Amino acid sequence: MPAPTSATLLERLPAAARSHDEVRRYSRARRNVLPRADHVTAVSGSWAHEAVLSTDADVEVALWCPGDPAAARRPDPDLVGLAARVVGRARWACRISARVLTGLQPGATAPALLSLVQLPRWVPADVLTEQARLVLVADGIEYAGNLGTLVRTVDACAADALLLTRPTARVTHPKAFLASRGMVLTTPVLTFASVPQAREALATAGFTAYVADPAGATAYRDAGLGTGRTAVVVGSEGAGVSDEWRCGLTPVAIPMHGRADSLNVAASAAVLLFEARARLDAAHRP
Q: Is the dihedral of CA 51, 53, 54, 60 positive or negative?
């Protein structure tokens, strides 16, 4: 007997209404109202699911909406194949109607693929190892888009981790997944209960921390970033870095040559991290 095709596998999925527990769970994740202990994010679209499948991430729920079979718009074979691969990894999967899709994911049109994906859980002992050389600390980050961009920046400069203190935004927010381009699946993110705990962890691991401060007296290229194990601390767009981080640490400024008085948090983090990365790489060249 020939193996079933991707389309056949999807056709065999049970149908589920919006009232089904797992469908409602996706809705709550998409709206960012699940408890923080539920370390899952809502994923939609082809590129996002390609990012999921490029890792060993656990797919908790997969929702496939084929649309109206009589409609002129047929599911793209590549999308069908992608959906079948995601369904094959999922713990539970179903078909949903176009009406349910509209309620779950406003703006989405059938055919469409939605899923709930587990994010990895990281612990300091496994991340702040002897091999770690560069980390970013984000204090009081309020917006999920900024958080996701910071995750993507950490990945881009091959930093070892993002440390969060006093966060309002959640790394599980779908906007964080989008802004990170899926890097939340592979970039270590550590959340600390307090600033003192984070500072102690960095000090124990041998990191020197530098605080980004537009009013700092030391220009970032003169501060010593990357001359040893380096932690760059950035703050929220509004309040900046808390006094608990400023105390006893070097404030580092990025000189502004135009009319703006500062960069946004993601741009500041990128400048400082890549400066540290360049010096770390230079120090380890033969």
A: positive
Query: Which domains, and CATH codes, for the chain?
Result: 6-118 (3.30.1330.30), 124-283 (3.40.1280.10)
pLDDT tens-digit readout, 134-183? 999 999 999 999 999 999 999 999 999 999 999 999 999 999 999 999 99
Q: How far apart are CA 36 and CA 8, in angstroms?
A: 37
What is the rounded distance in angstroms from the CA atom of residue 188 to the CA atom of residue 178?
17
Give exposure, 121-154, as e/b (b: 16+ Cβ within 10 Å): ebebeebbeeebbbbbbbbbbebbebbbbbbbbb
HEC profile of the chain: CCCCCHHHHHHCCCECCCCCHHHHHHHHHHCCCCCCCCCEEEEECHHHHHHHHCCCCCEEEEEEECCCCCCCCCCCHHHHHHHHHHHHHCCEEEECCHHHHHHHCCCCCCCEEEEEEECCCCCHHHHCCCCCCEEEEEECCCCHHHHHHHHHHHHHCCCCEEEEECCCCCCCCHHHHHHHCCHHHCCCEEEECCHHHHHHHHHHCCCEEEEECCCCCEEHHHCCCCCCCEEEEEEECCCECCHHHHCCCEEEECCCCCCCCCCCHHHHHHHHHHHHHHHHHHHCCC
**In this predicted model, what pLDDT tens digit does every residue of 224-250 receive, in sequence order?**
999 999 999 999 877 789 999 999 998
Joined together, the tokens standing for residue 11 give: 């056709």
CA distances from 43 to 105, 118, 144, 173 (A): 10, 10, 15, 10
Write the pLDDT tens digit of every residue in 10-28: 989 999 999 999 999 999 9
